[in-house]
Design goal:
This protein is of the alpha+beta class and 267 residues long. The chain has five helices and eight strands; from the N terminus they run ααββββαββααββ. It is globular, with a radius of gyration of 31 Å.
Length: 267
């Protein structure tokens, strides 16, 4: 009987070793498969093109709704030191609600005093930044640091234009109505001119075809976080696309709406 029990114990030893080897081999195979899957996923993600922006808006067939989504997104990115938006941003497809279906014509002047250089026809996506000050102007209080607010608002206009053109492919150009106060009135006590940021799709096509520039993706600093020198440089980057707006003026037959864009006077 003892010998029989000893034989059974001896018989179990090879089986136990076999089981351990099987478990070890299975574990190694599982690790290999996991690693292969991880590599495959990594290669797939690596080969996948990055989206144009990390800040996506909801899809919608209505271009106006898409423009309004862009307005809300960008407004939330540009804040004052108090955590409130620098301005309220709205969007639309026309500045004259009483002229539906009219052709939009932009007359661009080369100089502040010369005649129009070109007449451009096409669809325009419009944005308007209403500042915190009187009549949607800039807040000129000392605490608001006007120069920095103006510069950041110009940066905001450029971002609105790019995101607007990307998300509203129906538009040929983007026009952003700026808060009042960038230009002074022509005469003492006169009305300050309306200033717009205007950009054509063709001039920013490379930025629309490639990923949105990092400066429009990263967190936007508040006015208190930038210097006056940085503000001056920032504003200078966008000043060539800032125009004084004359109009909009509907033609007598109502077929056209003309927006005259005049460069600011040279300093």
């Amino acid at each position: 009987m003892a010998a029989h029990l000893e034989d059974r114990r001896e018989g179990t030893i090879p089986q136990t070793i076999h089981q351990k080897r099987f478990v070890a081999a299975f574990a190694a195979l599982a690790l290999a498969l996991t690693a292969a899957v991880s590599v495959t996923v990594w290669l797939a993600e690596r080969g996948k093109p990055k989206p144009w922006t990390d800040h996506q808006i909801a899809k919608n067939s209505d271009p106006v709704i898409r423009a309004q989504e862009v307005a809300s997104l960008v407004q939330a990115r540009y804040l004052g030191d108090d955590g409130k938006p620098l301005g309220t941003v709205s969007a639309g497809e026309d500045l004259i609600p009483d002229s539906p279906g009219a052709n939009q014509v932009v007359a661009v002047h080369a100089t502040a005093t010369g005649p129009p250089l070109s007449f451009e026809y096409g669809n325009i996506v419009f944005f308007k930044i209403c500042g915190r000050g009187k009549d949607c102007g800039f807040d000129t209080s000392k605490a608001a640091m006007p120069q920095r607010v103006v510069a950041l608002t110009a940066n905001e206009a450029a971002e609105l234009a790019l995101r607007g053109l990307k998300n509203v492919p129906e538009a040929d150009a983007a026009m952003v109505i700026m808060p009042g106060g960038i230009l002074e009135a022509d005469t003492a006590g006169g009305t300050r001119p309306t200033v717009v940021y205007y950009v054509r799709r063709a001039t920013v096509q490379s930025e629309l075809d490639n990923r949105l520039p990092a400066k429009f993706e990263s967190t936007v600093p508040t006015p208190g976080k930038i210097t006056d020198q940085t503000a001056a440089t920032l504003f200078q980057d966008y000043s060539p696309d800032l125009f004084r707006l004359e109009g909009p003026k509907p033609s007598p037959d109502g077929a056209n709406v003309v927006y005259e864009l005049i460069p600011p006077p040279a300093n």
